[in-house]
Amino acid sequence: MAFAAFSSTTAPSTDPVARRRSPVALFLLLPGILYLVLFFLTPLVSLLLTSFQAPREFGDIGQYDYAFRWQNYVEVVTTYWPHIVRSFSYALAATFFALLISYPLAYFIGVKARKWPLLQSLMLVLVIAPFFISFLLRTLAWKQLFADESFVVQSLKALSLLGPEAHVTGTAFSVIFGLTYNFIPFMTLPLYTTLERLDVRYLEAGSDLYASPFQVFQKVTIPLSMPGIVAGTLLTFIPAAGDYINAGRDFLGGTGTQMMGNVIEANFLVLQNYPSAAALSIILMTVILVIVSIYVKRSGTEELL
Amino acid sequence: MAVGAFADRGADLELVGIEKRFPGFTAIENLHLTIPAGSFFALLGPSGCGKTTTLRLVAGLEEPTSGRILIGGEDVTDQKSFQRPVNTVFQSYALFPHMTVLENVAFGLRRRKIGDPVAKAHEALLLVELDHLAHRKPQQLSGGQQQRVALARAIVNRPALLLLDEPLGALDLKLRRQMQLELKTIQEEVGLTFLHVTHDQEEAMTMADTIAVMNKGRIEQMGEPQQLYELPKTAFVANFLGQSNLFTGPVVSTTSSAIAVDVFGQQIVVPLKRAHRVSGEVTIGVRPEKLTLHADAPTHDSSRNVMGPGKVIDVSFSGVSTQYLVAVHGVGTLVVFAQNVAFGPAAQVGAEVWLSWNVDHGFGLDDDPAQAPRFEADLDTRTIAQQRRSSLITELEEA
Amino acid sequence: MKLSLGKWLLPVYSSLALLFLMIPIGYTFIYSFNDSLKSNITWRGFTFDKWLNVCNVQNGAVCQAFGNSLIIGAIATVVATTLGTMIAIAIVRYRFKFRSQTSLFLFLPMATPEVVLGAGLAAQFLSLGVPKDMLTIILAHTMFCISFVVVTVKARVASLDPALEEAGRDLYGSAWQVFARITFPLLLPGILAAALLSFALSFDDFIITNFNSGAVTTFPKYIYISAARGIPAEANVLASAVFILALVVVVTVQVSGAARARRLAKMS
Asked: Which segments of chain A have a pLDDT < 70?
């Protein structure tokens, strides 16, 4: 079901349809746009304003006044730079592994399984099946599977692949593992939708023109599935960078693996240090927007937006 | 396949005992075919007859279930398509949408590491008169231009064998004519072996030196276009390559030069050398343009066959000629093409007419009449509809 | 015929990848039958008890949270689907100023990390002095669902041949009749897909909810809170039940779709 959304982000624009100008358009647009202005755009503005707030003089914890305290940004960067670096490097690693795992899977479902529509649909259902069960429970399941007393960890220790004092949970490995696992469907589905439309006659033409199977893959398949690769990596990278469940201490993370999401949550909901949380959010959003626009420009898939 | 060098000339193609089975059906059964180097060979047949499968087998895009494929005497059955000295102009063109026209044309040269691919690609584009569009993307070209790019992309590799999969199918009539001419010219210039697959009999007849008519996975008849048209061997060929009037009846007498067949009480003579079967129940035929209409019963002439009387049930004017449908009691409906040498139709609907044709123009088929269709094969729908209608009318009249 | 490794590598790999995706689901399902005490970590024996008495633990806190999630999901889905469908039709079918800017604006919520969306809304509610409760959760969920509805329905509208609507008008249909009898029925599969997607997104959302829920507990939030002290097996029961229900619905739709495609292929 979710893949319907992703498929359309990669759909070719059918622009040359004759469009009419009509006041009906305004009537159709206005309620939804107004809603998003109220509950998406102005919140971002208030987030920006909050990020410059200063603590109220002689006020209680959590009381701030509007100001232009740009030092908030300096403070959060100096305090939380390891979290910022971790967020983007973990997200990058998870995106890379998710792509590595998803591409062959999506290729098999979208290209090789075309002859068997039933198999194709069933495999797709299995890809989206994780969406049907709580994100948190899935992550907790991994935590328990990787717990120190679990069968997996005990066997690894018995085989001396893991030191006797080593842990799996609470490490960078388990956080990246969790992020990778949780975002595989987000990677696979857009890849599937472009590969499913991939015309195998292009592959045959490549082979006819003396390209070996590897060259066909490199020169024809990859470039033609670029929209899916871009959509999939974005759908993985963006939420992974902002995620704080996998890295959470009660889930797969530990004290040394906290990401930006964790500190934003802690500052906002626990410490009531709203300006720091807001400043971190603004930094996260800005960095993501910059990365996304450079990436989309360089891969030549602007039409995705 | 040699890397870095072109095939120096066209090569023979030999198919030996090819069979291709897909789950549920057999696409090709026991196909033997030799196409000499430098020829322009057309495989003609309706859709689903196995012609495209044959082409894909030669290109290496499918593996035969059994049999061997030889190109220039070398067995290539186990070679993958990228290893074969063969190029294809695909029906859909399959131009890579993410590359410019020039990159498309240079693609094969680069894979084979042939020197100076860009210059050679430009040369090939000049040949098809599209060099000025070299830096466009394929989607920005018209259908005809894309077709020429596909052609350039294939011939730039100087393959020993060039495969054409209905490449003119999507073009309008004028462009088609141009492309047919262009293909012929290129073939004469470059001297490649062409294997052309098409369902368009006119295209096959105008372009090919040799045509093989394919039906249900088998080759029904092979030969020069004119020979196939004048002397079809089977009802399928007789009706797929142009139209035919076919009759069935027993052979009643045989002389040293001809046989006489009884068709519902009318004796029809066919020269012995033009008859594939000479005894028993046979199917004979004559082309519609060979028939002459008569308003009165013609006087007896041993050099002409006469059939009639019949009733004109439809007249349709098409410029150069007029088509008449004549229902003859017991025989069925005959199609007549008459040149419009005088003003106005030679006969009106409902008129009683006789038909005659030169004995030498008839032909006798090789089919077993019990199995062969009497009239319809894969004709155009209009003709089938007309034949159905007229046979209904005849039935009603008889009742 | 050659028996190549390449022929088997991909199917085997794909099966393993799918199996990998199923591991935590299987784990959650199996542990819904665990005869556990307070926390559900070690296997203590098989029982149907948890399935039969889902709401009896902690005075029904799990079911309370589950019910909240259903209510929030239902309301947010209805509102987001309505607003999003209207926008999708406008964008595909009409010309207006700032059309491409509007599309970009609609894409932005999907490109924004949830933690930013959540913190932003929470900052706004805080500065306006709005107390956090069910309403604030619903407002937040509707917001992030709209964009997903727009992209899903937009694809459907774009694939709809405008000639069908023109034919409707040609055959004397008024603007409203054309919409009700032609456009809407043809868009319905897309709208339903969008609604299902919205519900799934809302039902499983934790990050944005966490920032805007105050004292209200949703199903994911319940799990998050309990994660520290142990999650009762009843949570596994509810999650497994939802999983099975969703799976049955989706498999039915997909299989009947595949069967229909095959019938069509046979006909042609």
From this structure: 1-19, 300-305
Identify the CA nearest to A20 among candidates B374, C38, C166, B13: C166
Domain residue limits, chain C: 59-231, 232-268
Q: Is A110 part of any domain?
A: yes
Tell me whether residues A199 and B94 touch, CB distance under 8 A. Answer: yes
Q: What is the pLDDT of residue B2?
A: 46
Residues A264, A277 contacting (CB under 8 angstroms): yes
Closest by CA position to B269, among listed B303, B228, B232: B303
Task: Measure in Å the smallest separation between the Cα of B187 and chain A Cα atoms.
Answer: 19
pLDDT at res. A37 = 95
Contact A209 B153 (CB under 8 A): yes
pLDDT digits (tens, 9 = 90+) for C113-144: 999 999 999 999 988 989 999 999 999 999 99
Residue A74 forms part of a structural domain: no
Q: Does A216 touch chain C (CB under 8 A)?
A: no
Inspect the interface and report whether the beta carbons of A133 and C251 lie closer than 8 Å: no
The predicted structure's pLDDT at residue A255? 86
Closest partner CB to B112 (pick from A201, A210, A223): A210
Whether C99 has a pLDDT exceeding 90, the answer reads no
Chosen for mutation from C115, C136, C251 (greatest number of chain A CBs closer than 10 Å) is C115
Distance in angstroms (rounded) separating the CA atoms of residues C106 and C98: 12
Q: Report yes or no: A62 and A272 within 8 Å, Cβ to Cβ.
A: yes
Residue intervals in chain B for CATH 2.40.50.140: 231-398
Whether A13 maps to a domain, the answer reads no
Q: Which fold has domain B13-223?
A: Rossmann fold (3.40.50)
Chain B neighbours (≥3 Cβ pairs under 8 A) are A
Pick from B80, B95, B98: CB nearest A207: B80
Contacts (Cβ under 8 Å, ≥6 apart) of C40: C31, C34, C230, C231, C232, C233, C235, C236
Digit-coded pLDDT (tens) for C143-174 = 999 999 999 898 888 888 888 888 888 888 88
Tokens of A201: 């006659």
Confirm if B166 and B181 have CB atoms less than 8 A apart. no
Instruction: Return the beta strands (E) in A26-139 as ranges.
Output: 54-55, 64-65
Under-50 pLDDT residues of chain B: 1-2, 372-379, 381
Count of domains forming chain A: 1
CB-nearest to C255 from A11, A49, A118 is A118
A288 touches chain C (CB under 8 A): yes
Residues of the domain holding A290: 82-304
pLDDT of residue C47: 82
CATH 3.90.1150.10 correct for B231-398: no
CB atoms within 10 A of CB B308: 21
Please answer yes or no on whether C94 and A251 come within 8 Å at the CB atom: no
- What pTM did the predictor assign? 0.82
Chain A residues with CB under 8 Å of B111 CB are 209-212, 215
Determine whether domain C59-231 maps to CATH 1.10.3720.10. yes
Instruction: Assess A136–B contact: CB distance below 8 Å, yes or no.
Output: no
Q: Please, where in chain B does CATH 3.40.50.300 lie?
A: 13-223
Per-residue confidence (pLDDT) for residue B128, from 0 to 100: 83
pLDDT at position B385 = 59
CATH number of the domain residue A219 falls in: 1.10.3720.10
When the pLDDT of each residue in chain C is averaged and rounded to a whole number, the result is 87
pLDDT of residue A80: 94
Please give the backbone phi and psi of residue B264, each rounded to the nearest 5 degrees, phi first.
45, 50
User: How far apart are the C-alpha atoms of B61 and B20, rounded to whole Å?
Assistant: 12
Residues of A in contact with C121 (CB under 8 A): 39, 43
User: Does A240 map to a domain?
Assistant: yes
Q: Which among A9, A25, A129 has the least Cβ separation from residue C151?
A: A9
Task: Name the minimum distance, in Å, from the CA of B224 to any CA of chain A.
Answer: 30
